[in-house]
Amino acid sequence: MDKYxxxxxxxxxxxxxxxxxxxAAVAIVAATILCDEPCVLENVPxxxxxxxxxxxxxxxxxxxxxxxxxxVFFDTSGIINPVVPYDLARSMRASSYFLGTLxxxxxxxxxxxxxxxxxxxxxxxxxLKAFKSLGASDDxxxxxxxxxxxxxxxxxxxxxxxxVGATINAIFAGVKAKGLTVIENAAKExxxxxxxxxxxxxxxxxxxxxxDVIKIxxxxxLKGITYAIIPDQIEAGTYMVMAAATKGDVLVKNVIPKHLExxxxxxxxxxxxxxxxDESVRVCVKPDAQFIKTSVKTMPHPGFPTDMxxxxxxLLTLADGTSIVTDDIFENRFRYVAELRRMGxxxxxxGKVAIIQGVGKLTGAPVRATDLRAGAAMVIAGLAAEGETxxxxxxxxxxxxxxxxxxxxxxxGNMIRKYFPDINAQAITG
Length: 430
Ligand code: EPZ
Prior knowledge:
The chain is an alpha+beta fold. Helix content is 32%, strand content 24%.
């Protein structure tokens, strides 16, 4: 199988262009099911989660054509059965979005329980609560969630806590429901605003996306459009931390600086210089700089994003003193800590809190990606460490980072993708 091999210790320098946002793209691709006409999406990231979404649409009967780099044509009129293929759906969390879009169009959906990064339980009770509020019923059999209704009627949706996925699914169910839907305690992430902009460009009537109250007046038709996905806030933040951890000087291009505010603020507290421009940020650290210990608690947007927690924790392993990282969003998002310890990090974890004692340096080692953002943290650690790091299970990383190895090499980083024969298979075959 392929692994990443990184020779660390070199400051990253130069420019990197950020791709389209994974968590916006997976929602908007699913939303094409609600379009009554063909549409074209631009700035679609070439990552495996998107490839799976496209495969699911094709298997359901949609026409999906790659029209050039990062541009995809969709005509979902060919979908006649609201049934999502089991194996494809269970590999990612975003498959839950097919519940909302198929319910919105067909008033029925059969979708396998979603999979995705192992960050804890990750139930979908709030998604189902939203559908119920608009007139749908649900049941589960053999791992497949079935939702159905005679009709979708606008209603009041109040989430017990902030949830990105359930907010998105509530929007999907409300877009063509009869009447007014009000979503309270809504998530405010940039990808929710991007989804609302996409749907409104097609003729939907969604107001308040990006605030904690979203109001949707149902419409009967959505016309076809061409739409460009926003840049990826988390990919951008990941390269910002890469630049900082290697004490480099990197211009991160094709970003929306406002989406990066909490990340920029935290990096500045750690002693990293961040300059903001219209559509880029420059991150630089002097070779003799000492990172300052900092505490961080992950919060829903606009707080510090949980999807940046493993990356920032990796930087903090090199800070002077003790840093405290609290991840209140997921109950099991520190699985990467054991891998960082192999590289010399001094971290202890107690439930949702990691206590990080800064060490002078990290040393390269064979490690594995335990999930998408944990894998990104391994890349950062490998680039900052002395010596060689080999990262296994890189499929996790390639779910959400387009061409990460070539982007790192373009910044002067020594990172290649290399095939390693499967020693277990060899042992069996002798
Ligand atoms: C989305 O996951 C993202 N995934 C995650 O990004 C991100 O970490 C998360 O939002 C928070 O920002 C996609 O957009 C595809 P939630 P989601 O619903 O929707 C609990 C990445 O690295 N919960 O906001 O699943 C849940 O278990 C990925 O790109 C319920 O209990 O996140 C979690 O503890 C990882 N019941 C918390 O709420 C529900 O019905 C927040 O989950 C829904 C959620």
